[in-house]
Specification:
The chain has a domain of about 110 residues. It contains 1 helix and 14 strands. Strands 1, 3, 4, 6, 8, 10, 12 and 14 form an 8-stranded parallel β-sheet that branches. It has a 6-stranded parallel β-sheet with strand order 2-5-7-9-11-13, with no helix packed on it. The chain is globular. By secondary structure, the chain is mainly beta.
Length: about 150
């Protein structure tokens, strides 16, 4: 109905979608979304998202894109701005124009010169969600806490 159909009747030329059950979603530069999103396939944000995002595939934040909220995705490339908690199960790439504020957890991470990070980074990270505590986090025993010279 919309787009350029090919002779087999499929708009994508018979190619499979990017992720199982999902296609490619694009939020353009003039679009602002206030609210939470769930994407079954890849998503590219060139506009603004104020809310949480769960993406089953790859997230791309374009050079003018901005997300403020918690994000969980499979892979990510950030060229624009991000503020919140970011959990990337596989590969995270911060391009030279990236500006990230918040806690970042990723399986692998590539940081290009010029990118900005204000917060904590946990790499490699495996499993959990943005609100989960790291598996190694244990409360200090009373003896350990009293032995700290800064606590006196």
């Amino acid at each position: 109905m919309f787009g350029n159909n090919t002779k087999d009747g499929k708009a994508d030329g018979g190619r499979s979608s990017v992720a199982s059950g999902g296609g490619v979603n694009t939020i353009d530069v003039s679009t602002k979304i206030d609210g939470n999103l769930t994407a079954g396939g890849d998503i590219r944000i060139d506009g603004t998202l104020v809310g949480n995002l769960v993406c089953k595939a790859k997230l791309i934040i374009g050079p003018k894109g901005y997300i403020e909220g918690d994000v969980e995705c499979q892979k990510a490339t950030i060229e624009g701005k991000f503020k919140g908690n970011l959990v990337v199960k596989d590969d995270l790439t911060l391009q030279a124009t990236a500006d990230v504020t918040g806690d970042v957890k990723a399986g692998k991470m590539a940081v290009l010169g010029g990118s900005k990070i204000k917060g904590t980074c946990t790499v490699p990270y495996s499993g959990g969600s943005a609100s989960a505590k790291p598996a190694s986090a244990k409360p200090a025993s009373p003896k350990q806490a009293s032995d700290n010279p800064l606590k006196k």
